[in-house]
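call fold(seq) -> C-alpha cells
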Amino acid sequence: MAPPHRTPSWGISDQRSRTAGPTRRSLLAGVAALGALGAAGCSRVAAGSDVEGGDLLERLRAQGVARLGIAGEIPFGYINKDGELTGEAPELAKVIFKRLGVDRVQPVPTEFGSLIPGLASQQFDIVAAGMYINPDRCQQVIFSDPDYQMLDAFIVRKGNPLGLNDYKDVVAKKAKFATGTGYAEIAYAVEAGYKESDILIVPDQVAGLNAVEAGRVDVFAGTALTVREVVKKSGRTEATEAFQPIVNGEPHTDGGGFAFRPTETNLRDAFNTELHKLKKSGELLRILKPFGFTEDEMTDLTAKELCGG
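ret:
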C-alpha cells in the first residue's frame, strides 16, 4: 500500500504497533462471531445520495447506530475480554457520535488491510482503528484531523548497551534490527540505510520483545506508546526515549485519525467540529489516557498537513 521506503501507508495500527496482550490474530478470531451477528442485524447503508457532501450523518441519526471498522488491535480498537468494544478510537467515536445524535456504535472487525476496501464497499460507516494519515491513504479516503500524534521508540536490553537511540544508530552500530509485519518502521529503517532483507519481521511488539529478550536481535522498533507499554512486563528490557524518524530527509511525526468515504464530507466536518471541542476542553486526553496516551501524544496537526496538502 505504501510506496517503497517513503511515507509509508502502514500506520500505528498498521504497525499498529499493538500493546502487550492478545495478538491481532487472536483478537480477530474472538470478535469474528460478534461482528457477524452485528452485521446480520444491521443492513448496509444505501450507497447513493443526491445531497452535496453526503447524507450519511442524517441516515445514521435515523437508524441510531454507526458501524465502526476496527482491526482488533490494542490500544486502537478491539473487543476486550468481557466481549465489549473498546480502544482509543471506539471510545472517542462513542462520545462524538453521541454528540452528533447517534446513540450507539457497532463494531465490524476486519483485517487492517481490509479497512479501506471495507469502507468503500459499505461494510461499515467509518474506520475507527487509529489509522495513520498519509498521502497514499488520502487518495482513497478522507480523514478527520488526527486525534493523536506518534513518535517511534525502541525496545533494547536493559541499559541500552549499544547506545541505540534512532535508526542511524542502528545502521552505524550494525545492530540486529527487528520490527513488525507491515510496520511503518520498516521504511524508516531502510531510509536510514538499513538493508531491508536484513530486517527481522515479527508479528507484533510482543514477539519483538521476546526477540530482544532472547538475544536474537539487539533492537525492536515500534511506536513510542506500544513500546513503552509492552516493556512494563519485562525485567530485561527497556524503552528508549521517543524520537522522530526521518522521512524524505525531514524529521517526521505521524498522526492517526478516522477515515470516511470521500463523498461524506458533511459527516467528516461534523465529526471534526466535535473533535476540536474535545481537544480544546482537554476531554480528549481524558478519553485516550486509559489506553496509554499522554500529553505528548496530543496534537494540533491537521489531516491536510499529513496528507501533504
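The mean pLDDT is 86.
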